[in-house]
């Protein structure tokens, strides 16, 4: 196995297409990932069409890699297919609710990570876009997602045209807890975040943004309360539109 | 690489412990999975203590494998550690909202699948428990999860003591869509679900439950509207308790 310990996200791709056949075979293999009650509550929308990519790029704040990647994958939580099956079999589906959305999102993300691991084994590079939840409504419209289908994660895929440095990770003891959660003291925080804070790029971003430290770059610019509140409202609106917040049995 | 195409979930384990060192090294490697803004919004609670496992088993409907597995892993969405860091650095965290929960859950599930893939590469068997969202409140209490930490997925881990048949999967064309979502016609549904419906175990469960078909086993017994509504309410309550549904900036 290609060492997972050496993986890195890839944002620059060669102008070489990724074959439909390869995507299909990776999706087939990835579907072996565990799934809730073996319901496979996901769909994968594969976008190679430049016009559709251009429209999707708007939803992803026009990040260059969305247009440059030969393939854009939108992993969707999907309770529509399962519900259609139920309807065709005189079984009454009751999946327009939050826990069903969350079960479907779980299936989708396990499938997505399995796909990415397998794709990287084949020499492809991937990058996840955290922007999928910024504008779910736009993505729903562009891809024509029906009721009970919701975009959960977008991944760019292609053959790597860069060999970036690995980004840092917290020391593993910072994420592990034995038998119960042990909350973090200020001393724990200092120790866990020390390496990250001392990186040249952390200092660079701190200076660039005119903040006192890296944490302030996140709270003031990258993941702000104001943006989070606005996105949460848009997410609730989109979940409601997609039928995942229905109170009554329909 | 051990063929992912041949993977299966393992529910019976040898009475052999899984070393802390191995879990730690798998967690370290899995933390190379992609993460939103490199924030690593997850924690992993590792439970090998039989008393804690016994208490957790109640939250998981006393499924035998929860007690029998040498290790139980509770993968938690965690915005607490990051927020503590912010607080220690005079940065004001604004992560008590739905989109932050969802970002953390995404990170957590990508990390969880990476962990499971790597664990299986080492000869371990794993099984995900879909019951984590049934009783999040109980798990939160047992593990002492603070504000902004939420249990997302539980996984049992151990050395396999069974070699089960692979379960079925839908044909891959049933989950793939090109450029946009193509909704399913009744004919599509018949074709996609034909193999699953013709399996001996599908007929067995249909007969056992006295239903007309497999879909009705799901809607009437396994994933019912009534249970889903009750669980959705418990999930909202637990999300509120953990501070992920605060409207105001605190």
From TrEMBL, chains A, B:
<keyword id="KW-0288">FMN</keyword>
<protein>
    <submittedName>
        <fullName>Nitroreductase family protein</fullName>
    </submittedName>
</protein>
<dbReference type="Pfam" id="PF00881">
    <property type="entry name" value="Nitroreductase"/>
</dbReference>
<keyword id="KW-0560">Oxidoreductase</keyword>
<comment type="similarity">
    <text>Belongs to the flavin oxidoreductase frp family.</text>
</comment>
<dbReference type="InterPro" id="IPR016446">
    <property type="entry name" value="Flavin_OxRdtase_Frp"/>
</dbReference>
<feature type="domain" description="Nitroreductase">
    <location>
        <begin position="5"/>
        <end position="159"/>
    </location>
</feature>
<keyword id="KW-0521">NADP</keyword>
<dbReference type="InterPro" id="IPR000415">
    <property type="entry name" value="Nitroreductase-like"/>
</dbReference>
<dbReference type="InterPro" id="IPR029479">
    <property type="entry name" value="Nitroreductase"/>
</dbReference>
<keyword id="KW-0285">Flavoprotein</keyword>
<dbReference type="GO" id="GO:0016491">
    <property type="term" value="F:oxidoreductase activity"/>
</dbReference>
């Amino acid at each position: 196995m290609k060492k997972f310990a050496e993986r890195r996200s890839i944002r620059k791709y060669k102008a070489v297409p990724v074959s439909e056949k390869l995507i299909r075979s990776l999706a087939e293999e990835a579907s072996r990932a565990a799934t809730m009650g073996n319901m496979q509550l996901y769909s994968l929308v594969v976008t190679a069409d430049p016009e559709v990519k251009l429209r999707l790029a708007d939803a992803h704040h026009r990040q260059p890699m969305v247009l440059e990647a030969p393939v854009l994958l939108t992993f969707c939580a999907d309770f529509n297919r399962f519900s259609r099956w139920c309807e065709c079999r005189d079984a009454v589906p009751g999946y327009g609710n939050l826990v069903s959305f969350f079960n479907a999102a779980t299936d989708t993300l396990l499938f997505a990570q399995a796909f990415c691991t397998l794709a990287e084994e084949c020499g492809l590079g991937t990058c996840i876009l955290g922007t999928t939840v910024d504008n779910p409504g736009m993505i729903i419209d562009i891809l024509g997602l029906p009721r009970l289908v919701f975009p959960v994660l977008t991944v760019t895929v292609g053959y790597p045209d860069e060999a970036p440095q690995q980004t840092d990770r917290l020391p593993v003891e910072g994420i592990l807890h034995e038998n119960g959660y042990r909350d973090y003291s200020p001393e724990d925080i200092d120790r866990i975040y020390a390496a990250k804070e001392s990186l040249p790029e952390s200092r660079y971003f701190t200076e660039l943004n005119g903040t006192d430290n890296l944490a302030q770059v996140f709270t003031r610019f990258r993941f702000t309360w104001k943006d989070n509140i606005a996105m949460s409202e848009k997410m609730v609106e989109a979940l409601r539109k997609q039928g995942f917040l229905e109170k009554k049995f329909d």
